[in-house]
């Protein structure tokens, strides 16, 4: 019997997952905020659009870290 083990699969990138989540959050919060404003729920629309801005900042930061060559 051989002791050969296949090489392990490459690890998944945590930064890539964070990039996908920030992108999803951006789209979801933007659309939900716009719909809330159209439904005259101003306070909810403002909160959701502020969360969309946070997602934009997070997205940009993750892209910066990936370009810099951080592992993950």
Structure described in brief:
The protein is mainly alpha-helical and 72 residues long. It has helices at 14-38, 42-68.
Q: Could you explain how this protein is built, in words?
A:
The chain is mostly helical and 72 residues long. It has two helices and no strands. It has helices spanning 14-38, 42-68. Helix 1 (14-38) runs antiparallel to helix 2 (42-68). The two termini are 36 Å apart. It comes from Lentzea kristufekii. The chain crosses the membrane at residues 19-37, 43-63. This is DUF6343 family protein. It holds the Pfam family DUF6343. Keywords: Membrane, Transmembrane, Transmembrane helix.
Looking at this protein, list some descriptive labels.
DUF6343 family protein, 2 helices, single chain, membrane, transmembrane helix, DUF6343, transmembrane, mainly alpha, 72 residues
């Amino acid at each position: 019997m051989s002791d050969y083990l296949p090489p392990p699969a490459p690890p998944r990138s945590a930064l890539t997952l964070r990039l996908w989540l920030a992108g999803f959050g951006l789209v979801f919060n933007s659309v939900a905020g716009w719909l809330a404003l159209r439904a005259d729920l101003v306070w909810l629309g403002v909160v959701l659009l502020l969360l969309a801005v946070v997602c934009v900042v997070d997205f940009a930061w993750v892209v910066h870290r990936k370009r810099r060559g951080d592992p993950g």
